Amino acid sequence: LKRKLLLFIYFHSLTVRSEDETIQSPKPTVEDARSWAISFEKVMKSAAGRSCFRQFLRTEFSEENMMFWLACEELKKETNKTVVEEKVRQIYEDFISILSPKEVSLDSRVREVINRNMLEPTSHTFDDAQQQIYTLMQRDSYPRFINSSAYTDLMKNLEEPPPPAEP
Ligand SMILES: *[C@@H]1O[C@H](CO)[C@@H](O)[C@H](O)[C@H]1NC(C)=O
Ligand SMILES: *[C@@H]1O[C@H](CO)[C@@H](O)[C@H](O)[C@H]1NC(C)=O
User: Fold this and answer.
1) Mean pLDDT for each 10-residue chunk of the chain (167 residues)?
2) CB burial class (10 A; 0-12, 13-18, 19+) of residue 118?
3) What CATH architecture does domain 40-157 belong to?
4) Which of 25, 50, 139, 144 is most buried, taking the most CB atoms under 10 A from its CB?
5) Does this model's pTM top 0.85?
6) C-beta separation of 125 from 118 below 8 A
7) Closest-lying ligand to the alpha carbon of 86?
8) Distance 147 CA to ligand 2 centre (A)
C-alpha cells in the first residue's frame, strides 16, 4: 500500500508539473548549464538556458521581460512588410502600452524613440528597448537566477543524477 501511495504521489506530481510546463525545455548538457554561471550571454545564447531562466523569471513575476526580448528577436527575422507592421503593433500592444498587464519597464528616452519609430514601423523599431530590457535582466534577475534553486538544483541533477526512486 505504501508503495502504491508513493507511486501515486510521484505520478501525480509529474502530471501537475507537465501541465504547468508551457515551455518545453530541452535538457542541457552539464557543460552548457555550467557555462551559464560564467555570463548572462551564455544563458541567452542557449535555448535551454533561456527556457530555464524564463521559468525562474516567472517565479519572480517578470517573465514579460523575456517574452518581450524573444518577440523582438522574432521581429528582427521578419522581412515581409505587412507581417512586420502587424508584429510591431502586437508587440506594442502587449509590452509597451501602459494599459498592458505585461508592460515592460523602459525609461522615457527609449519610450520616445519607440513613439517616433511607430510612425514608420520596421523590424528594428524596438532595438533600443530590447537592449534596455536585456541589460535590466542581466543586472537585476541574472545574479539571483544563478543563486536560485532553479539553477543550483538543475546543476545538482545534471552532475549527479538521482538514484532510481525505490520506496
Ligand atoms: C506578406 O504577408 C502577407 C500576409 O501574410 C501576404 O498576404 C503577402 O503575400 C506577403 N508578401 C510577400 C511579398 O511575401
Ligand atoms: C545566495 O543565496 C544564499 C542562500 O539562499 C543567500 O544567503 C545569499 O545572500 C545569496 N547571494 C546573493 C548574491 O544573492
Assistant:
1) 50 40 69 97 96 96 98 97 98 97 97 97 98 98 96 93 72
2) middle
3) Orthogonal Bundle (1.10)
4) 50
5) no
6) yes
7) 1
8) 6
